[in-house]
Amino acid sequence: MKRVSSPEDGRRVVARNRKARHEYEVLETLEAGMELKGPEVKSLRAGHASFRDAFARVEGGQVWLHSLHISPYEQANQFNVDPVRTRRLLLNKDEIRRLVGKVEEKGLTLVPLEIYFMRGYAKVTIALARGRKLHDKREELKRKEQDREARRAVEAHR
Hints:
The chain has four helices and ten strands, in the order ββαβαβββββαββα. The protein is of the alpha+beta class. Strands 1-2-9-10-3-8-6-5 form an eight-stranded antiparallel sheet. Strands 4-7 form a two-stranded antiparallel sheet.
């Protein structure tokens, strides 16, 4: 996985969930810290993370990130933890309370969009999202293709 960095805001993006914006309609985004163990941080810095089937859930007044795969760090040996363990997201109580109300609405879910480091701390951007139907996905792809063709036509006329 290639690393993407954006120096304008001091973020160094480690991994992006590219399928999320295709599978879901993103309504709102939030930045949250992640509670990680030492070897997980090292592995993340090396870019070893996979979002396949990852999601967040509010349980017991906390937000938990499920199924995020962070590969074991080679040099950690015995200190490595389960690569797909459930990780706590660090949000304040007001944000959690607001999320509980929104997630209880029909069809809304919490989906991780990207993991990045900001000022040395691992952060995750989570989105409050609604799942797309197959026809919605097709319409979105059609719209993107039309936009792309329009940009090409404008470029050709210059």
